[in-house]
Amino acid sequence: MTAKTIVHTDKAPAAIGPYSQAVVAEGGKTLYLSGQLGLDPATGALVSDNVEEQVRQAFSNLTEVINAAGGSLENIVKLTLFVTDLGNFGIVNSVMSELIPEPFPARSTVEVSGLPKGGLFEVEAIVVI
């Protein structure tokens, strides 16, 4: 497992969710994951119109890609989350805090006007294995 060091300073705002201000990854190989939507791998369709179910499926898809590369969720150093409604920020944080092990990776969350296939949530990651 690659060592990752969490960076925190009181001279910048504290994280407002399950993420770290920054992460330093040492050694290993870097994996840049494309965005994952809440799509069912068997059908290619959204799992449902429910945002929580889409978030869970997107993280499941992300997990499978990371595992295929020889890593795990613990190896994530940076996540970028895309939501079509920041009103769902609490749901996303809740699911993420359940699934992503501490210490949390760095993270950005962006509200977008639309996502492919009408998705409500997308996640991409940088992973060091």
From TrEMBL:
It holds the Pfam family Ribonuc_L-PSP. GO terms for molecular function: deaminase activity. Signal peptide: none annotated. One of its GO terms (cellular component) is cytosol. It comes from the Bacteria. Belongs to the RutC family. NCBIfam families: Rid family detoxifying hydrolase. This is DfrA. The lineage of its organism: Bacteria, Pseudomonadati, Pseudomonadota, Betaproteobacteria, Burkholderiales.
